[in-house]
Amino acid sequence: MTGSTNAPGDAAQQGSLVRLAIGFTAWAERWFPDAFIFVAIAVVIVAAGAMINGATPESVSIAFGAGFWSLITFTMQMAFVAIGGYVVASSTPAARLIRALAAWPKSGVSAVGMVAAVSTTASLLNWGFSLIFSGLLVLALARRRDLRMDYRAAGAAAYLGLGSVWALGLSSSSALLQANAASLPKSLLPVTGVIPFTETIFLWQSMIIAVISIVVSTLIATWSAPGADRALTAEAMGVDVAGDKVEDQSPTQPGEWLEHSPIVTVLLVLVAAGWVIHEFTRQSAMLAISNLNTYNFIFIMAGLLLHWRPRRFLNAVAKAVPATTGVLIQFPFYGAITAILTQPKNGAGHTLSDQIAHAFVSLTTQHVYPLAIGVYSAILGFFVPSGGGKWLLEAPYLMKAANDLQVNLGWAVQVYNAAEALPNLINPFWMLPLLGVLGLRARNIVGFTFLQLLVMLPLVLFLLWALAYTLPYHPPVMPN
Question: Torsion-angle region of residue 399: left (phi > 0), alpha (psi -120 to 50) or beta?
């Protein structure tokens, strides 16, 4: 755990921007409640807004209860994104890769830059994998006696994937949601239609933003990392980076034998491989991987195979489950809010979602929309730190406004994705799994991530606005 986290004069050495960020985070840690409180407040506000719009209290309550479990499938799917990523990242082969990577850097500054590059690139595959793999990489680097690395800067670099580009990758909650009609609330489907990956994360415009973001984030991380003479190491911070020894105990009871034998693993993976081959041969690879169930299935089975023995796999799953707490308890409330937003007053007429969409249409134009929605989503993202859950709050009116203004619907999703991820850089909600691995507190790393936000926010907003000119509008496509 963390001991004395601030060396004398350390804040002064880091510059005014980082001092401001550290002060802001200290204030937020003291005064900001848990993210669940923001969700609860959102329910009350949306319910009041629906009644002001003409809905009866009875209809609002009915919509709340009816919508509460409407996202149960998606809730479990997103929980398994985190579990699958964690299990793969904590496997023995991943540990070997981490040790190999940790041997490369020649200086503490280059080590921080490498962590940033690994974190952001890995997040395009799976945000849970990126978070844990990068955290374990930082620990491995911190164990090197010949490398004087600033532990705070490295921890911040490990978080950059989730704080910048993850939503532009394969585990993007909103892109996955929009690609799967079965995961969408029935009230939202007519507004958005089904939007495949080819129209969201695999747009060349989206990939350009991802590449630029990775390069710029890595450069900022490298340039802002203190050199050897000013680095605050893990040892100086009182953090034990030795790590827990993995004990591969032999079975002591006959019933435990299969738990420690790879026989079950091999048989299960063989059965699973047959289904995966079937899925990828009956349709295009892009359609197959955009199915959230297929995506999670591959990660879980890969994790089982990489851990080799069922007992190791089950231990990794047990460690991963706490990272899903926020998803499991908050997503049902997001479903309820979506139901209230789309509840017609007195069973007919305009919904609250319609009214908000009308306001956006009246205040923006087709070309201003990406910039306005990007700013709006970024601000709201600080208070509702959940990509998929927040999308369900915003989609009913943002996508209706996009249709009215004839903005490309896939790009509207990507505007949301690129902008809403940025507040994660200063919101401690998704930092928790990483901080647990590193033995740090949010205030230790947010000075560096705040600097990232100052640079990335205007850059990403400009790219979202400029690239929108290259995309035509298409009406919603309903599933067959």
Answer: alpha
DSSP state of 107: S
pLDDT band at 27 (very low <50, low <70, confident <90, very high): low
Query: What separation in angstroms does the CA of 335 have from each of 41, 69, 420?
Result: 15, 7, 19
Q: How many CB atoms lie within 10 A of CB 238?
A: 12
* Cα separation, 438 vs 101, whole angstroms: 18
Reading the block at residue 310, the tokens are 């069922």
Q: Does 5 have pLDDT greater than 60?
A: no
Distance, CA of 51 to CA of 53 (rounded, Å): 5
Please calculate the CA angle 213-135-272 and round it to the nearest 5 degrees: 90
CA distance 129 to 366: 37
Tell how far CA 231 is from the center of its chain.
Answer: 29
Read off the tokens for 35.
């993210």
For the chain, the domains span 13-240+259-470
Tally of helices (H runs) and strands (E runs) in the chain: 23, 0
How many angstroms from the chain centroid is the CA of residue 153?
A: 20
What one-character DSSP code corresponds to residue 184?
Answer: S
Q: Where are the alpha helices (DSSP H) in 364-431?
A: 369-383, 387-405, 409-420
Q: How far is CA 98 from CA 115, 118, 138, 417, in A?
A: 11, 10, 9, 29
Q: What is the pTM of this model?
A: 0.77
Sign of CA dihedral 413, 434, 295, 328: negative
With tokens 């532009």, the residue in question is 168
pLDDT of residue 10: 42
- Work out the burial of residue 62: count CB atoms within 10 Å of its CB; fewer than 13 is exposed, 13-18 middle, 19 or more buried: middle
Any idea which residue has 């995961």 for tokens? 183
- Nearest CA to 414 among 168, 137, 67? 168
- Closest CA relative to residue 209, chosen from 457, 390, 474, 473: 457
| End-to-end C-alpha distance for the chain, whole angstroms | 54
Taking only the tens place, the pLDDT of each residue in 187-218 is: 788 888 899 999 999 999 999 999 999 999 99
pLDDT in tens, 94-104: 989 999 999 99
Q: Cα 115 vs. chain centroid, distance in angstroms?
A: 18
CB count, 10 Å around CB of 56? 14
Say how many C-beta atoms besides its own lie within 10 A of residue 350's C-beta: 13
- Cα separation of 337 and 328, whole Å? 16
User: What region does 345 belong to: left with phi over 0, alpha with psi -120 to 50, or beta?
Assistant: beta
Tell me what the pLDDT averaged over the chain comes to: 83
